């Protein structure tokens, strides 16, 4: 038997972590979590906005195909051709024969507008007129 063994009359040597070591580990985990959470929230918002932008581009292709030249848009054809990400809402707005597409998400993020000037956040300009088609 070793001299540290309790049966040999020696003091038992505990193997484990001290309270200080455990508290240091908990504090380090807390600091890392405080750094990571805001970054993850920002990434989530970026992903939501990217899904709205992607849906608007898909809607643009469907509206362009449905118009077939200068003909009026066939709303039923557009509904059949476009799959909207769950939580996103898209509007087709017509004002004086000019089409403007507007998209937003009920999960947060900004509202986007896609028209002849390109894709931009709604604060940079809004679609005039009333929505003639809302998806989904």
From TrEMBL:
This is Prepilin-type N-terminal cleavage/methylation domain-containing protein. The chain crosses the membrane at residues 22-41. One of its GO terms (cellular component) is membrane. InterPro entries: N_methyl_site (IPR012902), Pilin-like (IPR045584). Pfam families: N_methyl. It is found in: Membrane. Keywords: Membrane, Methylation, Transmembrane, Transmembrane helix. It is a single-pass membrane protein.
């Amino acid at each position: 038997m070793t001299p540290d063994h309790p049966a040999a009359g020696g003091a038992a040597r505990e193997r484990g972590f001290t309270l200080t070591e455990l508290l240091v580990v908990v504090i380090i985990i807390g600091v890392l979590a405080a750094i990571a959470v805001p970054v993850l929230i920002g990434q989530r918002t970026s992903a939501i906005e990217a899904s709205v932008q992607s849906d608007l581009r898909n809607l643009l292709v469907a509206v362009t195909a449905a118009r077939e030249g200068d003909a009026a848009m066939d709303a039923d054809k557009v509904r059949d051709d476009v799959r909207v990400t769950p939580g996103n809402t898209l509007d087709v707005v017509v004002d004086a024969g000019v089409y403007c597409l507007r998209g937003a998400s009920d999960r947060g993020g900004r509202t986007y507008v896609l028209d002849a000037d390109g894709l931009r956040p709604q604060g940079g300009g809004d679609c005039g007129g009333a929505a003639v088609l809302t998806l989904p």
